[in-house]
Description:
Elements: H1 2-34, E1 40-49, E2 54-65, E3 71-72, H2 78-83, H3 87-102, E4 110-114, H4 117-120, H5 125-136, E5 143-148, H6 157-169, E6 172-178, H7 184-190, E7 195-198, H8 200-205, H9 210-226, E8 230-232, H10 238-246, E9 251-252, H11 263-269, H12 277-287
Parallel strand pairs: 2-4, 4-5, 5-6, 6-7, 7-8, 8-9
Antiparallel strand pairs: 1-2, 1-9, 2-3
Helix pairs in contact: 3-5, 5-6
One magnesium ion is lined by residues 176-177, 197, 233.
Amino acid sequence: QAKKAGGERIFCFEANMEAEVKHRYKMESEIRAGIPRQEFVPFYQPQYGIRESNLVGFEVLARWKHPSGILIEPTDFIPLAEDTGLISALSFSVMRQAFIDAKDWDHSLVLAVNISPVQLIDPTLDKRIMKLLAETGFPAQRLELEITESSLLEDTPQVLSTITSLKALGVRISLDDFGTGYSAMTQLKAFPFDRIKIDRSFVYSMLDNGESAAIVNSITSLAASLDVPITAEGIESDEMRAYLDNIGCTDGQGWLYGHPTSKEDLMKLLPQITLPAREAEDDRSEKS
Ligand code: C2E
Ligand code: MG
Ligand code: MG
Ligand code: MG
């Protein structure tokens, strides 16, 4: 009896493995086909200056408009896209759409784009970004690339040279999800970051967990002493905002300010940014 049950378990395990392999294979071909069809689209999450509550820009977050009608979140397709080498084409498709969308928004607004560790080891990344900026007319000065600590574990001269050449163009580099990786301090010294983002896992619990609060406090004062602006992720309440303002955190994003939003919904929410930059400037001078 016991033997039989074990045998069934093994059979069941193999059947699951096979189903899993089939599922991944199906998804891979769907991702491959979906990229040129622009099924991967940019959503925009606002980033605010905490003290003045002023809009400073948007983080670009990919969403998959699956042909079945479902909207799929990045955690469900980015890892597979990374494993299959499709991440680069996918990210460039999303970035291109974002540059075109945001080009005519108020020229003070920055776009923050996520770059996966897999993309960062591509020795042609800087050239490809340069080419996309030139083709779309989006200014390098309005682009910020978010990279994670794990990107830098390789710490190859190649990665440093890519970052250096992008910075020479005027592109800024921020360190995403700070505090969740390894050897954070060494990397702060080795790489010339323009911004640090505190991971939302610390922000989430800082009001009722002493350790989280200590981590948020010390990352914020570290950033201040390095004279680097800092963005807190995952601000969901006004209490969180007030706490962060009080300790000197400069910028923030999270549900308090806005969820990631499609371009169409954003246009309804913030009509002023739909104006071409010229008109937006005229508008301001009329008021003053
Ligand atoms: P991330 O860069 O750390 O992005 C922040 C994530 O936090 C987003 O999840 C956002 O929706 C979520 N978030 C923002 N505010 C709040 C809040 O107040 N509360 C809570 N609970 N969550 C909040 P999302 O959109 O699911 O993206 C997940 C990750 O996928 C991103 O993490 C980013 O690393 C990656 N990703 C997204 N788009 C792209 C892309 O185009 N290329 C690459 N390479 N990675 C991407
Ligand atoms: Mg999400
Ligand atoms: Mg990010
Ligand atoms: Mg993050």
